[in-house]
Amino acid sequence: MQPSPEQSPHHAYPDHWEADVVLRDGGTARIRPITTDDAERLVSFYEQVSDESKYYRFFAPYPRLSDRDVYRFTHHDYVDRVGLAVTVGGEFIATVRYDRIDERGRPASAPADEAEVAFLVQDAHQGRGVASALLEHIAAVARERGIRRFAAEVLPANSKMIKVFRDAGYTQQRSFEDGSVHLTLDLEPTAESLAVQRGREQRAEARSVQRLLAPGSVAVIGAGRTPGGVGRTVLRNLLGAGFTGRTYAVNRAFAADQGTIDGVPAHRSIGEIGEPVDLAVVAVPADRVPEAVADCGEHGVQGLVVLSAGYAEWGAEGRGRQRELVRQARSYGMRIIGPNAFGVINNAEAVRLNASLAPEPPAPGRIGLFTQSGAIGIALLSGLYRRGAGLSTFISAGNRADISGNDFLQYWYEDPDTDVVLLYLESLGNPRKFTRLARRTAAVKPVVVVKGARHSGSTPPGHAVPVSRIPDATVSALMRQAGVIRVDTVTEMVDAGLLLAGQPLPAGPRVAILGNSESLGLLTYDACLAEGLRPRPPRDLTTAATPQDFRDALAEALADEGCDSVVVTAIPWVGENGEAESGGGEVLATALHAAAAAGPAKPVAVVHVEIGGLAEALAAATSTVALPRPSAQSSAAATPSRAGAATTTGHDPARTPSAPGTGSGTATAATGAGTDGGSGIRIGRIPAYPAAERAVRALAEAARYAQWRRQAAVPGKVPEFLDDTIDEPGAADLIDTLLGPDPDPRGRPLAHDEARELLGRYGIAVRPTLPAPDPEAAVAAAAQLGYPVALKTTAPHLRHRADLGGVRLDLANEGALRRVYGELTDLLGKPAELQPVVQAMAPRGVDTVVRATIDPAAGAVLSFGLAGAPSELLGDTAHRLIPATDRDAAELIRTIRAAPMLFGWRGAAPVDTAALEELLLRVSRLVDDHPEVVSIALEPVVVATQGLTVLGASVRLSPPPARTDLGPRRLPDY
Question: Per residue in 653-668, pLDDT tens?
Answer without folding.
Answer: 333 444 443 333 333 3
